[in-house]
Specification:
Helices cover 59% and strands 9% of the residues. Helix 2 packs across helix 15 and helix 17 packs antiparallel against helix 19. It is elongated.
Length: 731
């Protein structure tokens, strides 16, 4: 085939300008109506997929086509070529939906799968599978495409009855705030088993249907290809992605390179399973599972995938499904009622018996059962595959889609009835309290970037960085930065630096508290730009040293503060410490001081350092006592630590074992009460929260803070909040 200049201007057969116009109108209508349906469903506390499906059905022959056939035929003409054009978008949406399902499938849950979850999952598949197979075997011939393929139809219907919808279940648990409960973890674990086994069975059914009849030789060949594909994903794709994701995230200059990598891998895996005779959605599902295990895949990347998929592609897919559903073909709905009854009884009874057999109480078992009964989007994907492979009639397709809608409606309603009767254990209460009290720095996931050009201030910041990330799953990232210099400047400064980049990094690495940090060396015309570029790859706080002036500042620090995508902590240290044992944090009620408190608290929790909070109050001589009568006369009131007062300062204290001393210092504009307390209290670190109040380029953190920074002899860290980041995190 020629792709020369003449070919580029040759009209594509069957793709006229009107066809493109219709396609764009159809896509716009499907997305808009699906969004309205999802919004209505969410307002009633229902999964968004229910509203999107209902909207698609309303646009199809069930409503628009029935009552306004002329308008329906104009927008959705009965032209196979036109519908195939729209269906291509649905296939992409279906594949992306299965990619996200794989990304939500944590195989580590299988390693920690409890007895209750395992038995509930097995029973929740075996009983529905058996009932579904029996239903398909005795179903009237008018519901079958080919009565001679009843065995294949029965196995397919059995699989459709036994599968659960992990994305819908996960979203319901999130909406009902059950992901931190023990019962939520059991449901997710059981859902992983259901999804994984169900898609393996479905891939074999798809392979059998592709060959027209079940031939052992062809099916065996497809199974061998499928096993080879899975082996390649484990031993070739996974190691490749561990390197490729890191390279795309840390070394590519173009933004969203890792997002492009994820989409390319998904399409290639989907194409591979399509080629070997298995449906492409299975390849997308496997790609998602492998990508979930990749440690450097950013949460921001997954969030972008979810935005595009759930906002645009999935609604198009659900809308196309709705266009295929004709409720008028169901007649009196007797068979619909039978199928829904079999689907619900199989899941509810199977999961309940399995959970009780596994040692769970009745209401716990009932909660697992009603959650696992949700079929949602996965049932719709199964029905779409069955229709495309010629296993399902349009009538049976509509029945299975209605099963997905009804079971997705029942799941949140059932959980609202059963969960209030499930007793919360003390461990659950502590876990929920901890999750709600993370503040701006989650100690288990905080990502710290330590920027250094080899100065002493960065070395002083290193113990704080490593202590802050001591309990985190993410290692500290050390970024050595150097401005790009001409050859004659490099020659002039040879021998005048404090050591090579490797030597400077090793000096910091020696303070790493036994954990191996990540390292990177960057250079460029803009040192601050290089630091911020590294931070955009995933960072919660940047730690860097200040300049050599008495105050905090310098061009690099100023530019980092102005452009940082996260919070910034700047170290000013006349003396360097290996660790910090006594920390003072001034508290004035501002967002910045709360952020400083949370940073110091996380360090103190990890290192067992002593923490004191100096709360600035107005001078009230009658309410204060003098802690020192030697002539210094600092009005100070020391109170016993109050839980209520600590929680007013920061929610992070709700789940913390650290109980700091609270010092109430009277504010006096003629002197610095904080600076005097620093000298008296023998502290070795002060953490100050402050916003940059500079009108021009030079940093300015307020007169009181500037006086403290300039006057104290101990290390001072100024924490500058990124207000947009605080809003996004809800901190």
């Amino acid at each position: 085939m020629c792709y020369g200049p003449a070919a580029l201007h040759t009209p594509i057969p069957g793709l006229s300008g009107h066809a493109v116009f219709l396609l764009l109108v159809q896509l716009a209508l499907l997305v808009a109506v699906a969004r309205i349906g999802a919004e209505i469903a969410k307002r009633f506390g229902l999964p968004a997929v229910v509203g999107e499906l209902t909207a698609g059905i309303a646009l199809g022959p069930s409503l628009l086509g029935h009552y306004f056939p002329g308008a329906f035929a104009t927008i959705f003409p009965p032209d196979p070529a036109q519908f195939h054009l729209l269906d291509a978008f649905g296939t992409v949406g279906m594949s992306m939906l299965l990619l996200l399902t794989g990304l939500e499938t944590d195989l580590r849950l299988l390693r920690n799968l409890g007895r209750a979850a395992l038995i509930a999952s097995v029973m929740g598949m075996v009983l529905p599978f058996g009932l579904g197979f029996g239903l398909g075997y005795f179903m009237p011939a008018e519901y079958l495409v080919d009565p001679n393929s009843r065995m294949l139809f029965s196995v397919f219907l059995a699989t459709a009855m036994s599968i659960s919808a992990m994305p819908v279940i996960a979203k319901i648990l999130i909406d009902l705030d059950l992901t931190k409960r023990n019962i939520g973890l059991v449901i997710l674990s059981a859902g992983v088993v259901d999804d994984t086994v169900g898609w393996l069975i479905l891939s074999l059914i798809a392979a059998a249907a592709t060959h027209g009849v079940v031939r052992i030789q062809d099916l065996g060949l497809t199974v061998a290809y499928l096993a080879g594909f899975i082996i390649l994903t484990i031993f070739v794709l996974y190691p490749f992605l561990r390197v490729a994701v890191r390279v795309a995230t840390e070394h590519f200059k173009t933004s969203d390179s890792d997002l492009v990598l994820v989409i390319v891998i998904t399409f290639l895996c989907a194409a591979a399973t399509e080629r070997i005779g298995v449906h492409p959605v299975f390849g997308a599902f496997v790609a998602g599972i492998v990508l979930h295990q990749t440690p450097r895949l950013r949460k921001e990347t997954v969030a972008k995938l979810e935005s595009v998929t759930f906002g645009v592609l999935a609604p198009i897919f659900f809308g196309i499904v709705g266009l295929r559903v004709n409720l008028w073909d169901l007649g009196g709905g007797h068979m619909l009622g039978v199928v829904i009854l079999v689907a619900c009884v199989g899941k509810l009874v199977g999961c309940s018996l399995g959970a009780i057999w596994g040692g769970m109480r009745f209401w716990e078992a009932a909660s697992i059962a009603v959650a696992m009964n949700a079929r949602g989007a996965m049932e719709i994907v199964v029905a779409t595959i069955g229709l495309s492979l010629g296993i399902l009639t349009p009538q049976m397709f509509s029945i299975i889609v209605m099963v997905a809608i009804v079971t997705s409606l029942l799941a949140p309603l059932g959980l609202r009835l059963t969960m209030p009767r499930v007793r919360m254990t003390d461990d659950e209460a502590r876990r929920i309290l901890a999750s709600e009290s993370t503040g701006a720095f989650d100690p288990t996931r905080v990502r710290v970037l330590l920027a250094t050009a080899g100065g002493d201030n960065a070395l002083a910041a290193a113990p704080l960085a490593f202590g802050l990330a001591l309990k985190s799953s993410a290692a500290v990232k050390i970024v050595h930065v150097a401005a790009r210099r001409s050859w004659w400047r490099r020659l002039l400064h040879r021998g005048s630096s404090s050591g090579s980049a490797d030597e400077q990094i090793e000096r910091i690495r020696a303070l790493a508290r036994g954990r191996s940090p990540e390292t990177a060396q960057v250079s460029g015309d803009s040192v601050a730009g290089a630091i911020c570029d590294e931070a955009r790859r995933g960072c919660d706080v940047i730690l860097l040293g200040s300049g050599d002036s008495p105050s905090i500042g310098g061009p690099v620090v100023e530019q980092v503060v102005a452009a940082a995508p996260c919070h910034v902590a700047i170290m000013k240290a006349a003396l360097r410490a290996i660790e910090y044992r006594r920390i003072l944090v001034p508290v004035d009620g501002s967002v910045a001081s709360r952020l400083a408190v949370e940073l110091a608290l996380r360090y103190a929790e990890a290192t067992k350092a002593e923490l004191a909070l100096a709360v600035l109050t107005e001078r009230r001589p009658q309410a204060v006592g003098y802690a020192d009568l030697s002539g210094t006369h600092i009005p100070v009131e020391v109170r016993a630590t109050s839980d209520d007062e600590l929680q007013r300062i920061s929610v992070a204290f709700r789940a913390s074992d650290i109980k700091p001393n609270i010092l109430h210092l009277a504010f006096d504009p003629r002197s610095s009460a904080i600076a005097e307390e620093v000298e008296r209290g023998h502290y070795d670190l002060v953490v100050v929260g402050a916003e940059n109040r500079a009108i021009q380029h030079r940093l300015f953190f307020g007169y009181e803070n500037e006086r403290l920074i300039r006057g104290t002899r101990i290390p001072v860290v100024v924490v500058v909040p990124n207000l947009s980041r605080l809003g996004a995190n809800g901190a």
